[in-house]
Amino acid sequence: MIYAVILAGGVGSRFWPFSRELEPKQLMKIVGEKSLLQSTVERVRGIITPSNIYVVTNSIHFYEVKAQLNGFGIPDDNIILEPQGKNTAPAIGLAAKFIAYGDPEAVLVVLPADHYIKGLPGFRRTLKNAIHAANSGLLVTIGIKPTSPATGYGYIKIKSKIKNQRSKILAVESFIEKPNLVNAKKYCKSDKYFWNSGMFVWKASVFLQEVKHYLPGLHRSLVSIHIMKDVERVWPTVKSISVDYGIMERTKKIALVPAKFYWSDLGSWDSLEEFFHKDKSGNILSPDTLALGCKGVGVFSRSNRLICAVGAKDLIVADTPDALLVCSRDKTQEVKKLVGLLKLANRKEHLVHLTERRPWGKFTVLQSGPRFKIKLIEIDQGKRLSLQRHKQRAEHWVVVSGTATVTIGNKTMLVRSNESIYIPNATLHRLANLTAAPLQIVEVQTGEYLGEDDIERFSDDFNKGSRLDV
Amino acid sequence: MIYAVILAGGVGSRFWPFSRELEPKQLMKIVGEKSLLQSTVERVRGIITPSNIYVVTNSIHFYEVKAQLNGFGIPDDNIILEPQGKNTAPAIGLAAKFIAYGDPEAVLVVLPADHYIKGLPGFRRTLKNAIHAANSGLLVTIGIKPTSPATGYGYIKIKSKIKNQRSKILAVESFIEKPNLVNAKKYCKSDKYFWNSGMFVWKASVFLQEVKHYLPGLHRSLVSIHIMKDVERVWPTVKSISVDYGIMERTKKIALVPAKFYWSDLGSWDSLEEFFHKDKSGNILSPDTLALGCKGVGVFSRSNRLICAVGAKDLIVADTPDALLVCSRDKTQEVKKLVGLLKLANRKEHLVHLTERRPWGKFTVLQSGPRFKIKLIEIDQGKRLSLQRHKQRAEHWVVVSGTATVTIGNKTMLVRSNESIYIPNATLHRLANLTAAPLQIVEVQTGEYLGEDDIERFSDDFNKGSRLDV
């Protein structure tokens, strides 16, 4: 049987400030109306039955991934959770182990969740060719014919020139790390070089054999995992390593199948250029933007602020409510480094958006003062927050739309739109939306101490993953 | 007697988005802890008695100017209000007329409210020289010796070279409009050229004679004004014209006194360069900014967002909660044009900040939704809003600091910190801060229609000027 293993554990920090560690690139809508993860699932589900589609992700993303997969028919158990990201080799190994346990002959189609692909018929033909090769025991990498001398990708050199355009399976000579521009130009002109796309097809059993041979430490870890719960114990000791570096550059069983579709890894802000409308001066402008004498400027906005650019050239402006990026177009790769610095500085802006998602909905801190904090809280249909209590702070709730079911002490009551209620400090309370419509409330917190850690939880519907309450 | 006429009617739109039509440059703190208007008053009050200091401004700025002049001992009646801005000749004419009425021998020191000056002793010596010349019937313009080939200023050519460094009063040959760079370089090297600073000294009577001769229409308008109230009727028919173009370029009575102080007109974002600390790469960075590989970047922030710049060169970033400007450093003059476009487009961002000032305090719209609006309202000590009523919307008020005196219908009560109160629609109400401490409340408006025009006012402490309530 054929299985998809979708790798959705990355951070995609080069799209900061749109992407955050807790809201990574693959869960974002970058091009089109679906997230990259949803588009990836959509692409394979005509070829692979939903119950055979697996998604590997970080456990902190469980509820968001689950919500995004809603409607695709993928069982919750197919979401494989890593307590820590360990790069691609361990992630694929973990999926291979679990799938092979139920189906020793399983063939895995390994797909990153955060790429853009156009041309579904070509994608299917490519997979068919790759599956054919995989069935004969090869580790197949899907190669992209370069269309530009990109220096941001690894390249794969094949053994002989392609004589016949129809050749479907090619022998690989070597892997080449990200080249300089001179070499990239040479590779781009030659017909012996492909971009390394990170898409692979192989039998789970063959892959695990190669792991045993080339990454024996990882193999021992995988062998010691019997049930999903074991992962939490074993994973911290697993070494981070990419499948390219750990297996593909060393295995003798490698083959390359050329992609018959359009591909972009959406690697940085600059890569979005081809997906959006440009004005006569080559500017991509979000709706609430005014540009005067600009050229090659890309404005991407998730705030509701007016953005004006005057006389700017070759610049990316990416705006969110709590963080702004202004980046020269030829330096968009550096954004990753920037995010690393923010993390080192213990900032919040690399981790979460101002509007933070929770399994039950989301909330935004609208304003903080010395003795107050104002939040807009949105609770999804049928969801409720934990039963909780705050030592220090009191809370005023004004329902602005929907109907809240509020428990205070041992009383439960309905609070309707345009009504308000007061929760004194030290009082047990719970907020729920038992209706079929969304619920929005404004919470005004007052008190001497308003830290998020002033909360005691007594009962919670959500305990998978590790995201905080509100 | 000597009088100061401080011209505080400008908009200073080149400092958008920090400056707005209702919060113009002269009322802003750009350099130092005082506004430019306050610094201007401070500069002259050692030389001119406060009761002789007049400020000409637009009537919409009355309460803000009054608040800024608090403590300087300047009578409210010395704030001369124009219902519309008509450029400098009418503004000075109006002040001259009113001052000459009480003191026919008055000498006026005319100062723009929005310039930066350093060197108080030199400033005083300059004024002394200029007043001396004015007393002999001359119209004195204060000229600045160019320190760079600036193309943003008008130049004044004197009749003969300065042979004696001590020469205090110079004859003027001609006015030169903003030159190109080639000419500016020539002027900068020569000792016959000065920058036109817009600071003037003359007898009110001499000035009004020249207005009669060169601007007879304006003179007729001024003659028809007998009391301040007449201005409202007359002003709409007055033609906008600068004193340079209308009088100084044509009068035979002109003389130039060289400035003996450091001067900057703070004409644009780029002019701030000399006032702020630069890092090794020539970047000026506001506190919450991270710059990676940037050169010559100026980040000015009035938002509380993180700003990151990567690989940018010679760029100004000016950030506010509702509008962002990204501007090439050599195009900062174009910001004025940009603001003109915003005005044409009927935007709000050229007019007011997200936090709007009112005579009684200020308010900020924190969030708007389809059926709700959340405001943070701050009421100054001893102030109150109008007695009012809304047809459509209901209001929830949560006091977050201070004590509110709230009238609802015919009842008045105290609402203390951490207490809340509900104002149903169609109910007469009033919000007051009768304490000696500031009052902060969070207002959650709910209802089908939340437009600012849903208000009926029954009594108001503020009716001078034309600023809206909340």
Structure, described:
2 copies of one chain form a homodimer. Chain A is α+β, with helices and mostly antiparallel strands. Helices cover about 20% and strands about 35% of the residues of chain A. A 6-stranded antiparallel β-sheet of chain A has the order 17-18-19-26-21-24, with no helix packed on it. In chain A, a hairpin with a 3-residue loop joins strand 18 and strand 19. In chain A, helix 3 (about 90-100) crosses helix 6 (about 205-215). Chains A and B meet through strand 14, strand 15, strand 16, helix 10 and strand 18 of A and strand 14, strand 15, strand 16, helix 10 and strand 18 of B.
The CATH class of the largest domain in chain A turns out to be: Alpha Beta
- C-alpha termini separation of chain A: 44 Å
Beta-strand fraction estimate of chain A: 25-35%
Backbone structural class of chain A: alpha+beta
- What is the number of helical segments of chain A per DSSP (H or I, 4+ residues)? 10
CATH superfamily of the largest domain in chain A: Spore Coat Polysaccharide Biosynthesis Protein SpsA, Chain A
Low-confidence parts of chain A, pLDDT < 50 over ≥5 residues?
A: 465-470
Secondary-structure arrangement, i.e. CATH architecture of the largest domain in chain A: Alpha-Beta Complex
